[in-house]
């Protein structure tokens, strides 16, 4: 019987993206310019109309100057992340 992996928390990922953008006071245009992504891509990601790819999230991590794990870690918001030790 296969072991099913937990679903990623895409809502938490969207919230993290919005929080980082809002914390900096950036518009969608500003984030698009800083990341090199299209404005439409940034809007679609934040509104849940796409999940992006590794290259997209890498560009966003650089734009925000945060480790990519800070962005993608939100995907495990509803379950224990892989490799986490139980205390």
Q: Can you lay out the helices and strands and say which pair or pack?
A:
Blueprint: H1 10-24, H2 28-35, H3 39-46, H4 54-64, H5 68-72
Helix pairs in contact: 2-3
Mean pLDDT: 91
- Number-wise, the strands total 0
Structural class: mainly alpha
Element order, helices and strands?
HHHHH
The percentage helix is: 40-55%
| C-alpha termini separation | 29 Å
* Gross morphology: elongated
Quaternary status: single chain
The unreliable regions are: none
Rg, rounded, reads 14 Å
Figure out the total of helices. Answer: 5
Description:
The protein is an all-alpha fold and 87 residues long. It is built from five helices and no strands. The protein has helices at 10-24, 28-35, 39-46, 54-64, 68-72. Helix 2 crosses helix 3. The model has no long low-confidence stretch (mean pLDDT 91).
Features:
elongated; single chain; 87 residues; mainly alpha
Short description:
The chain has 87 residues and is mainly alpha-helical. The protein is built from 5 helices and no strands. It is 54% helix and 0% strand.
